[in-house]
C-alpha cells in the first residue's frame, strides 16, 4: 500500500510543457475515474493549476509505471518525454509534499494563500467523481488542518514578496482605506495587471488605465472593472488621481516634473502618491522635489520585498517543522492499518481452526463423556492447532538463519 504524489510544476517544466499536461475542468471527472480504473489505484485526486499538475494516488502495489504511462497517454505524450519533467514522492514523502503544497511552501510565491483553495476544490471534485475513500478522506482533512495551522501560527503568508503587491501595500499604508482612492495605472503589461488585480481585491473605487496600445488597456480595464485611456490623456487623468502607479517599457520618462506640478495645482495641493515600477524610470526623479508629492521607485520597493522574503523564509522553516510532525503522525496511522488487517485475518483464521475441536468436544459431552476429560482433550487439541503454524515458521527461520525473523518471534513469545 503506497501513497504517491507525481507531477510537474513551475520548477521542473516550462509554461509550454505545463500547458500540455493540464487537465481542463470539464475532463477532470473522466480523468479521475479513468486513473482509478488502472486496477491497483484505489483512490486518486488531481490538482491542476497554472503552475502545477499533480496526481495523488493510493496504490495497492508499489509499481508507479502504469500511473506515469496513464498520465502520458491521457495527454497524448510519449512517456519518456514526460518523465524528464516529472517528480515523484512516495508514502511519508508524498504526504509531506501534499501538506507543503497546500500550505503554500511549494508555490512560485512562497506562502501564497490561493493554492489551499485550489487543493480543496480538487479534493471536492475527486469526491464527486467517487475516487476518494477512507485513506484520502483522512489524508486531505489532515492536510487542510495543518495548512490552517501554518496560516494561523506562522507569518509565512504575511508581508509583500512581489513588487506589485508591495506597491499596493504601500498605498494602503499611506491611504488607510483604498475604497475611496482614485488610482491611475500607466501601462498595461504583466506588472500593471498584477497591481490592478491586487487593487481590485482591496475594493478600490476607481481604476483608470492609460496605455500606449488602447486594446491592451481595454482588456485589462474589462478584467478589473476599470476605465481605459490613451497615454495622450495623461494631462487630464493625473489631476484626478490620488495614486499613480507606472510600469511601461518606455526608454525615457513619460511623466515629467511639469506635468505633476500642473496636476498638483489643479488638485489644490491634495497629496499624490506616485509609484514608479519601471526600469528605466517612467517618472522623472525631479518630481520628488515637489511639495505634496510622494514618489517611490522600484528600488525602494525592492528592498522591502527582499526583507519580507527573508522573513517568510524564516517562517517557512517553522511551517516545515509543523508539517513534518503532521506527516509523520499520518504515516504512523497509515502503517497501523496494516497491523489491523493482519490481526483481523489472524483472528478470523484462528476462529475457523477452533470450530472443529469445539464441535467434537460438544458432541463428546452430549454422548456422556466425563467433562474433565473433554476439557483436557479440547485444551490439548487447541494448543496443538494454534502452535502448529508458529512452530513451523520458527523452524523454517532457524533453518534459513533468518535472525531478523527469529528476533521478531522472540518478541512475540515475550
Would you kindly provide a written description of the structure presented here, covering whatever features stand out?
The chain is of the alpha/beta class and 414 residues long. It has three domains: 2-153, Glutamyl-tRNA reductase, N-terminal domain (Beta Polymerase, domain 2, 2-Layer Sandwich), CATH 3.30.460.30; 163-305, Rossmann fold (3-Layer(aba) Sandwich); 336-413, no CATH class. The chain is built from 15 helices and ten strands. The strands form two sheets. The protein has a six-stranded parallel sheet with strand order 7-6-5-8-9-10. Strands 2-3-1-4 form a four-stranded antiparallel sheet, sandwiched between helices. The longest helix has 69 residues, at 298-366. The chain is elongated, with a radius of gyration of 33 Å. The mean pLDDT is 90. Pathway: Porphyrin-containing compound metabolism; protoporphyrin-IX biosynthesis; 5-aminolevulinate from L-glutamyl-tRNA(Glu): step 1/2. The active site is at 50 (nucleophile).
Structural class determined from secondary elements:
alpha/beta
Q: Low-confidence segments, ≥5 residues, pLDDT <50?
A: none
CATH superfamily of the largest domain: Glutamyl-tRNA reductase, N-terminal domain
Give the total of domains: 3
Integer average pLDDT: 90
Order of helices and strands: EHHEEHHEHHHHEHEHEHEHEEHHH
